[in-house]
Amino acid sequence: MKGRIIADWNKVDFKDRTSRAKVVGALQYFMRQPDTKDSPVRRALQAFATKGDFPAELLQVLEKFHAVADYDLGYESIFDIRDFGGTNVSGFKISNVAHGLTFGKVLTGEKAKIYKFSGAVTEVTFDMYGGGLMWDRKLIDDAQYWTLEDNAIAFRNAAYYSRAANFYALIEAVAGTGNAQSWAAVTPASVATSDKDYDAIRDVNTINAACLAILADLKDDGVNANANSQFILLAPVALKSRILRSLALLQQSFAGSAQHLAFNITPMFTLMLSSNSYYYVLFPKAKMKGGYRMDLTIFDQFDITAYADTMVGWQRYGGAIGDVDQVARCAIA
Questions:
Q1: Residue 236 and residue 233: Cα distance in Å, rounded?
Q2: What are the residues facing 9 on neighbouring strands?
Q3: CATH number of 9-174+287-324: 3.40.50, 1.20.140, 3.40.710, 3.30.2400?
Q4: Does the pLDDT value for residue 127 go beyond 70?
Q5: Which of 35, 114, 255, 328 is the most buried (most CB within 10 A)?
Q6: Helix ranges, the chain (H)
Q7: What does the domain layout of the chain look like in residue ranges?
Q8: Beta pairing, strands 288-303 & 80-83
Q9: What would you report as the CA-atom Rg of the chain, rounded to the nearest whole angstrom?
Q10: How many CA atoms lie less than 13 Å away from 196 in the CB half-sphere?
């Protein structure tokens, strides 16, 4: 039988150690595919946040490589992510931290535990994140290979979803610690609430105010923040049409008119924010840091008491926002 992860299940003999090792090797390759540099899966997931954003040809790529878009890698455009694989370091350092946030160790599927930190030099540790996958040996005896592979796909999605959720949770945790930008007033003040552009004008004014506040806070921090800096606007998918309308708003209703937007903004939309009531304007990279110490790695053994093959996957990584002034949480009402 041809499989999606195993090329030919008919050649697999779980009683044979060599055959079993090949299965584990194929699973290991599959588990690490989203992190493989320059892979079609990585390029696709970095470029688009939700499945609805994917062109048909990229959806075909995702189907080929079994990457269901239940998670996204958009946060890698926001955080300065470094690859520490193959090193023996236990973490990385962020210098000149006035006030920051980091997440602590959690198991796959748990919510991130966010901690505040500060100091001239702060070390962010690489913690282990793991979860288990159990294959009932009866499924193997009965050649239910599609079920086995579906379980493996769901397990991989859960692992990468959990990692992405931790990084997005850091951004949401700035509430009350960073720039809280209220919904800006409409300009001119004579614009009526019934005007078709009323909300869009207030939204773009809010975005401009958030960018200005971030630049004011970062101007002396040595991160090269200036009027031409590139910002990222991270928003829940539920606000996509509203945000795009505000970013495209013109000063006058004729072709060639200048935009209301005063800064360089790249919009990014995700399903992984917990609230649809806010969006975030961010000055990316700089002291927003992350590090991957160990890619998703599986270990396996046969459990004679459960008549099942138990596989446990582990990742090791860390992340932090070294300066919450890089993030502004923006209200929509």
A1: 10
A2: none
A3: 3.30.2400
A4: yes
A5: 328
A6: 17-32, 40-47, 56-64, 137-141, 145-172, 198-218, 240-247
A7: 9-174+287-324, 179-282
A8: parallel
A9: 23
A10: 4
